[in-house]
UniProtKB/TrEMBL annotation:
<comment type="function">
    <text>Major role in the synthesis of nucleoside triphosphates other than ATP. The ATP gamma phosphate is transferred to the NDP beta phosphate via a ping-pong mechanism, using a phosphorylated active-site intermediate.</text>
</comment>
<keyword id="KW-0546">Nucleotide metabolism</keyword>
<keyword id="KW-0963">Cytoplasm</keyword>
<keyword id="KW-0418">Kinase</keyword>
<dbReference type="InterPro" id="IPR001564">
    <property type="entry name" value="Nucleoside_diP_kinase"/>
</dbReference>
<feature type="binding site">
    <location>
        <position position="10"/>
    </location>
    <ligand>
        <name>ATP</name>
    </ligand>
</feature>
<keyword id="KW-0067">ATP-binding</keyword>
<dbReference type="GO" id="GO:0005737">
    <property type="term" value="C:cytoplasm"/>
</dbReference>
<dbReference type="GO" id="GO:0004550">
    <property type="term" value="F:nucleoside diphosphate kinase activity"/>
</dbReference>
<dbReference type="GO" id="GO:0006183">
    <property type="term" value="P:GTP biosynthetic process"/>
</dbReference>
<feature type="domain" description="Nucleoside diphosphate kinase-like">
    <location>
        <begin position="2"/>
        <end position="141"/>
    </location>
</feature>
<keyword id="KW-0808">Transferase</keyword>
<keyword id="KW-0597">Phosphoprotein</keyword>
<dbReference type="GO" id="GO:0006228">
    <property type="term" value="P:UTP biosynthetic process"/>
</dbReference>
<comment type="similarity">
    <text>Belongs to the NDK family.</text>
</comment>
<feature type="binding site">
    <location>
        <position position="103"/>
    </location>
    <ligand>
        <name>ATP</name>
    </ligand>
</feature>
<dbReference type="InterPro" id="IPR036850">
    <property type="entry name" value="NDK-like_dom_sf"/>
</dbReference>
Length: 146
């Protein structure tokens, strides 16, 4: 099923100059970029985005980290885009991510894992995250040859 999914390059990835590398991987895979913005996440948005982790002991550190610098937020579209992106991103922990995945190749540790991507095991998380970060008119529809 054709769908849209949310991805963002986290502050560690931005500061290390990895935006282009990451965008390039999704482009080469044939996914279509439908939205992108370079922003500093306000604290309230960070807390809402990571709401499912509110009770975890790493929550405060997670919010501090994601608001510690700019992020590059994106929406990518394609066949099973959420699952496809997830497999390209790898496991949460870079140490458990195979070479060839974004986190396996570029991630440093559990916190500094370069990218966030919607969870394919959490149905609706893609739509929820897209709505949180983008207005409808920021999602651009155009033809991309396959
Ligand atoms: P992500 O899946 O993008 O969103 C939740 C983030 O929480 C996850 O990436 C990790 O970066 C972070 N995270 C998960 N577990 C831990 C942990 N035990 N300590 C610190 N950060 C964590």
């Amino acid at each position: 099923e054709r769908e849209r999914t949310f991805v963002m390059v986290k502050p560690d990835g931005v500061k290390r100059g990895l935006i282009g590398e990451i965008v390039s991987r999704f482009e080469q895979r044939g996914l279509k970029l439908v939205a992108g913005k370079f922003i500093e996440i306000p604290r309230d948005l960070a807390e809402e985005h990571y709401g499912e982790h509110r009770e975890k002991d790493f929550f405060e550190g997670l919010v501090e980290f994601i608001t510690s610098g700019p992020v590059f937020a994106m929406v990518w579209e394609g066949q099973d885009a959420t699952r496809q992106v997830r497999s390209m991103v790898g496991e949460t922990d870079p140490a458990e991510s195979p070479a060839g995945t974004i986190r396996g190749d570029l991630g440093l540790d559990l916190g500094r894992n370069v990218v966030h991507a919607s969870d394919h095991e959490d149905p609706g998380s893609n739509e929820r995250e897209i709505d949180l970060f983008f207005d409808e008119e920021e999602l651009i529809d155009y033809e991309r040859p396959d």
